[in-house]
Write a structure and sequence with these properties.
316 residues; alpha/beta; Ribosomal Protein L15, Chain: K, domain 2; Four Helix Bundle (Hemerythrin (Met), subunit A); 2 domains; 12 strands; 17% strand; globular
């Protein structure tokens, strides 16, 4: 079975015959190509074009993160699944304001539903406040207003669910903000990998403005999955003391996970992606990772006019 590999140590990554090799001062680790889905580089790793060509031939995505765990970029193999028709429709739904607005609202609708689900679990007193703001979404007539609604709700949500006063990003200023930033970076990369399997173009988005320097469709889709993947993991690692104060690098003006903290979080993250739920429509168990892929397929069906898009709303 294909799996994701996370590399936190410093070393060299190269091809040796039909195997990927990661070499450090401690020795070599071999990654059989048939078992590799994607690779996450979180350490100081050197590589060469021979390896990149090998990864491209085998349709393996390489995600790169900086020292602090922020997503830097991806090596995206030549697209195997290309559909000119779908690309035209993707662009059309961006250029047609009403079509774009519909999808942007749907991404936020799914996000807020899953946020409310989390708040119900902790018996929050702010649920009605969030619902009141949520009602504004129906009449929001531009992207900026939609983003404003989402931002106000998420501010209340983070304060209630994680008991933080303010979301700080670059840099995060406390352990919970550090966990949110790291988790969101991992999720963003995972969604990029899942988009690659479909015929969607990751640079054409509807909620977030398309940019030359990012795969903005992954940002759109991530809004739905942050509450049910990243936020639930954070709640778990804190409640069970899986990650504690010793797992962070803290200075006056920043706070980041150290390598041990990253390892612990990645372990929980992978377990979450592999865990399954009974899908109501498919009538079988599917993993959280598969839910992301299914979301991509739902977007495709909407663009093709086969089925009106409805975002994932956690029912379990």
């Amino acid at each position: 079975m294909d799996r994701s590999y996370y590399i936190l140590k410093s070393g060299s990554l190269y091809r040796e015959q039909n195997v990927i090799v990661f070499e450090t001062n401690e020795g070599k680790k071999f990654l059989p190509i048939e078992n590799v889905k994607d690779i996450y580089l979180l350490g100081e790793v050197s590589l060469n074009t021979k390896l990149l060509n090998f990864l491209s031939q085998n349709e393996i995505i390489l995600h790169v993160f900086n020292y602090y765990g922020y997503y830097s970029g991806s090596f995206f193999p030549r697209e195997k699944y290309i559909s000119g028709k779908l690309l035209v429709l993707q662009v059309e739904h961006y250029l047609d304001f009403e079509k774009r607005l519909f999808l942007a609202k749907k991404f936020i609708e799914g996000s807020i539903f899953n946020i409310l689900r989390n708040l119900k679990e902790v018996k929050s007193q702010k649920i009605e406040d969030i619902k009141e703001i949520f009602f504004e979404l129906k009449n929001a007539n531009d992207i900026e207003k939609i983003m404003n609604i989402e931002g106000r709700i998420r501010e209340i949500y983070y304060n209630e669910f994680f008991e933080i006063e303010k979301r700080t990003r670059k840099p995060p200023l406390d352990p919970i903000n550090a966990l949110i930033s790291f988790g969101n970076s991992l999720l963003y990369a995972t969604i990029i990998s899942e988009i690659y399997i479909t015929q969607l173009n990751p640079t054409i988005s509807y909620l977030h403005e398309p940019s030359e320097r990012r795969f903005s469709l992954a940002l759109d889709i991530s809004e739905i999955f942050k509450p049910i993947i990243v936020d639930s993991i954070i709640k778990r690692v804190l409640n069970l003391n899986i990650i504690n104060e010793n797992d962070f690098l803290k200075e006056l003006n920043y706070c980041y996970l150290n390598d041990e903290g990253k390892r612990k979080f990645i372990k929980e993250y992978e377990e979450k992606l592999k865990s399954t739920i009974k899908h109501r429509k498919l009538k079988r168990k599917v993993s959280y990772r598969m839910l992301i892929r299914l979301e991509c397929y739902k977007i495709m069906k909407h663009l093709l006019g086969d089925e009106i898009y409805e975002p994932l709303k956690a029912w379990w």
